[in-house]
Amino acid sequence: MDKNWSEKNKEIQKLLSKEATFGEAIRKLIEFREELFQQISWIVEGYPDKAFYQLPFAGAKGYHSKTLAYSIWHIFRIEDIVAHEMIAEDEQILFREKFLKKTGSPIITTGNELEGEDIAEFSKKLKVQELYRYAKAVKDSSDKILLQLQYRDLKRKFNEDTKQKLIESKCVSEDENAFWLIDYWCGKDIKGLIQMPFSRHWIMHIEAMQRIKNRLCKLARKGLDPVAICGLSCNHCFLGEWCGGCRTEYNTCSFAVYSEDRICPNVKCCNEKNIDGCYECDNIENCEKGFYVSSNDGANAAKAQSLYIRKYGKKEFLKVQTRLHEKYEFEKVQEIIGQDYKEALRILEEN
Ligand code: SF4
Ligand code: SF4
């Protein structure tokens, strides 16, 4: 488990155990959930729809053997059921806000009963943006429930009536891979539910989602030119695990994600000019497009790198990048070559 997340989770669980620190525990838990949810937001924002139904670890044992869409559905179905059928005892968000229709989901269950290709087929049917809205609505609703809890509520247990209600809701499949969840949840008090569906369960699945998207990016980049169209090196970029590069559909560079049709201005311009990259353009020194806009801290470094590629070729460029990154961290390299592109070109030539 991610060390930082594990530490935060441990601290929250410790604070939760004492009445004097209960309020702080809930505040920190909500902050932590926000931090974790940000990972989901970035994934939904950055990747194409096809990324959400791929099974890059098909057949593996563990949470990473699922898809991105399934992981989101599963985390928030479980939380929706637990938060509303068990803790708040009101209507689930899935039904109250008509997310079953909106998401296009063919099931109302947690998805534990699905395996292998069935997970991919199920994921293909989900509308990713609506799925994200559902996840956000569940999170916000659960945060409100958490804020209303008192310390004394933590010991509240669940009886046979709750168990029957869960069975009758049909939100947990009768399949042996799923049905155990009802006994598992009903065996816990509210504190136990906060410890699993509301926090630890998130960490485990979000970590698995990171593994899935890292793998998808790696597969997308395999065999492709690692030199970005604006002259950056994908092999040395800090976004390496998040991005497939601008020559793939897995381009999560902010200059692409926040541009019209998710096409980066540098990529668009090079496509229109029918050139491989900005390093083949005569206007590079004066260009203000995309990554080269003067307000971008990295513009000078990228221009210098493109000029270097133009002069010495991509192979030499990648070698000089490797030498620089052996000496310095990514940020330091950007700082060193980020001041003035002519000076940066000189530095690259010296290394
Ligand atoms: S700014 Fe554009 S060209 Fe440069 S890495 Fe990002 S997407 Fe690729
Ligand atoms: S005009 Fe700018 S964005 Fe277009 S190819 Fe030339 S350097 Fe690249």
At a glance:
This protein is mostly helical. Helices cover 60% and strands 0% of the residues.
Describe this entry's structure for a reader:
- This protein is an all-alpha fold and 351 residues long.
- It folds into two domains: 219 residues, Four Helix Bundle (Hemerythrin (Met), subunit A) (Up-down Bundle); 117 residues, no CATH class.
- 60% of the residues lie in helices and 0% in strands.
- The protein contains 16 helices and no strands.
- The relative contact order is 0.10.
- The model has no long low-confidence stretch (mean pLDDT 93).
- It binds iron/sulfur cluster (2 copies).
- The site of one iron/sulfur cluster has 14 residues, from helix 11 and helix 12.
Keywords:
single chain, 351 residues, mainly alpha, Four Helix Bundle (Hemerythrin (Met), subunit A), 2 domains, 16 helices, binds iron/sulfur cluster
Write the layout of secondary structure elements.
Blueprint (H helix, E strand, L loop, with lengths): L2 H14 L5 H25 L21 H20 L5 H4 L2 H5 L12 H10 L2 H21 L11 H10 L6 H11 L3 H32 L32 H4 L7 H9 L25 H14 L1 H14 L2 H7 L4 H10 L1
Bound molecules: iron/sulfur cluster (2 copies).
Please report the number of helical segments: 16
User: For the record, what is the CATH homologous superfamily label of the largest domain?
Assistant: dinb family like domain
Oligomeric form of this entry?
single chain
User: Gyration radius, to the nearest Å?
Assistant: 24 Å
End-to-end distance, in Å?
39 Å
Distinct small molecules = iron/sulfur cluster
Q: Structurally, how many domains make up the residues?
A: 2
Global structural class: mainly alpha
Morphology: elongated
In the CATH scheme, what's the topology name of the largest domain? Four Helix Bundle (Hemerythrin (Met), subunit A)
Give the CATH level 1 class of the largest domain: Mainly Alpha
Tally of extended strands?
Answer: 0
Q: Report the mean per-residue pLDDT as an integer.
A: 93
Give the H and E element order: HHHHHHHHHHHHHHHH
User: How much of the sequence is in beta strands?
Assistant: under 5%
> Based on the structure given, which CATH architecture of the largest domain is correct?
Up-down Bundle
In the predicted model, the low-confidence regions spanning at least 5 consecutive residues are none
